[in-house]
Amino acid sequence: MAGEDDAVSSTAGGFRLRWDVFLSFRGEDTRSTITKNIYEELEKRSVRVFRDDEGLNRGDEIASSLLEAIEDSAAAIVVLSPRYAESRWCLEELARICERSRRLHLMILPVFYQVDPSDVRRQRGPFAEHFRAHEQEYENAVVSRWRSAMAKVGGTAGYIFNAR
After folding, report:
1. CATH assignment of 16-53+61-161, among 3.40.50.10140, 3.10.450.50, 3.30.1440.10, 2.60.120.10
2. Any long-range contacts for 103-107 (C-beta under 8 Å, 24+ apart)?
3. For the chain, what are the domain ranges?
4. Which keywords describe this protein according to UniProt (predicted)?
5. Could you confirm whether 93 is annotated as catalytic?
6. Reduced to 3 states, what is the DSSP secondary structure of residue 25?
């Protein structure tokens, strides 16, 4: 994976971002399946991919290294799976990715894995249940931010994988 020589370096045209792609996914759903395949294929092509390999515990604050990696990436691939919105970590990552895309034109490529893009966009199906649970636990402003990010990504053209 990334080595010490991956630090941000300057080029004739400016600064080079540390990561080409930030990979956002729900580990329990996709770590050993589609996310693994995407990661390995990109690595074979010398694409610098940030993939979080640390276990994220419920209730913990999102790691600053994740936020820094989002800020220091040219693109984000978001693997949206049935339980993606169950994780506040995933939703916080997604909101940050969307915020960065507005500010700095980060490219977002959604992968709809066993989910319908319209269910993501409208937070129906499994997403409705997950957002209802979040509304019980988190402030309206936080949940609204997450909902906006899901709607944005659900409305973005991406790849659909429904094979089980």
Report:
1. 3.40.50.10140
2. 106/70, 106/73, 106/74, 106/75, 106/76, 107/74, 107/75, 107/76
3. 16-53+61-161
4. NAD
5. yes
6. strand
Residue from 40, 93, 99, 129 carrying the catalytic annotation: 93
Segment 102-146, tens digit of pLDDT: 887 889 999 999 999 999 999 999 999 999 999 999 999 999 999
**Rama region for 46: left / alpha / beta (φ>0; ψ in -120 to 50; rest):** left
Closest alpha carbon to 29 in 86, 108, 88: 86
Query: In this predicted model, what pLDDT tens digit does every residue of 18-76 receive, in sequence order?
Result: 899 999 999 888 989 999 999 999 999 999 999 886 444 444 456 778 888 899 999 99
